[in-house]
Amino acid sequence: MNRAHKVIYTDWLLLVSCVAASLYGLLLIYSASVSGAGGNPTMQALCLILGIPTACSVSLINYRSLAARWYLLALPTLVLMLLTFTPLGYEVPGTDDRNWLLLSLGSQNILLQPSELLKIVFIVTFSHHIATLGNRIRKPLALLGLCAHGALPIVLIFLQGDDGNAFICIVLFATLLLVGGLPLRYAIGGTVSLAAMVPLVWQQMSPDKKARFLCLFQVDAYRNTTGWQQELSVTAIGAGGIHGVGYLEGGKDNLYARQNDFIFTVAGEEFGYLGAVLVLILFALILLLLYRNARKSEELTGRLLCIGLLVLIASQAIVNIGMSLRVMPVLGITLPFFSAGGSSLLTLFLGIGIAMSVHRYRYTRY
């Protein structure tokens, strides 16, 4: 591919939209760190600087070749996931998830979250699997194989204790199957089966996890216990009003995880309603561009890759913002591009690079 093709067929609008969201997130993370909530804005900025060339480089690789060589991504990711069950696995203080790897590089300790990479890799491998089957997706044996494929990441992440990301993988699994051609009656049957299992699952849940759901309906009863984070969050967002309390002026309430799980609260408190709406506008733009790439894709693999990334970002955004507004239970899900976390940001730009590749090779096969 010559230099002209590299420039002309790059999806600059998608890239710029993601960078804009990440820069806004960096401002919010810096404010959270100043207020003492934690977060490392320097590391976040470094990951953003690395993420941009990562997306651009990946976009130059034909997504068809990338999907066909799925094992080059899947095997290293699987190894990293399994390492979290060894002494290298790390549980961040204040959480009950052992889903990190603590790596030492000289005097510097680096935290890596393999499940973030696994979500992107799952989109690639599952999209390729569905596209390879074609119309055979309706056959029982083929569907069984797809279920086994989908169960692997879901079970691994669930065993880490990360219910939030396991839920996101379930949403990805179901959506990609439907987009890939699975008849709607199968989806209805699966939904009914899952609904029938809810009472059984509820009985097996720990009291702490039950309380995360109950506090949404029994606000007063859980205001000072399980629901304290969401109570502080909605209070802070309400205090922001239309224009906010001012940049670097928020965070006086000691809200835990303000820099990641509740980063939306920072936008709502310090920039007010306008700042919160700007977050939604940026997400809407990114999702519309991904949908555009999916619609223009000439084949199923490209369409599934873009839809998968769209669903990943949309579902995480809905749950995360819902957590901050006390309409969703606290599941420990970060806000894409905004929350503190180098693993999340880098892998998101990896996924954006794949979507940019779909855009590029929609017009040329060079």
Characterization of this structure:
- This protein has 366 residues and is mainly α.
- It has one domain (3-86, 114-363).
- 68% of the residues lie in helices and 4% in strands.
- The chain has 16 helices and three strands.
- The chain has helices at residues 3-8, 12-34, 41-59, 63-68, 71-83, 114-133, 140-159, 163-179, 184-204, 207-214, 219-222, 228-240, 263-270, 272-296, 300-324, 342-363, and strands spanning 89-90, 100-105, 108-112.
- Strands 1-2-3 form a three-stranded antiparallel sheet, with no helix packed on it.
- A hairpin with a 2-residue loop joins strand 2 and strand 3 (108-112).
- Helix 6 (114-133) packs parallel to helix 16 (342-363).
- The protein starts with a helix and ends with a helix.
- The model has no long low-confidence stretch (mean pLDDT 92).
Main attributes of the structure:
three-stranded antiparallel sheet, mainly alpha, 68% helix, 366 residues, 16 helices
Largest sheet: 3 strands, antiparallel
- The general outline is globular
Question: Which structural category fits the helices and strands?
Answer: mainly alpha
Which whole number gives the mean pLDDT? Answer: 92
Number of domains: 1
Widest β-sheet, arrangement of strands = 1-2-3
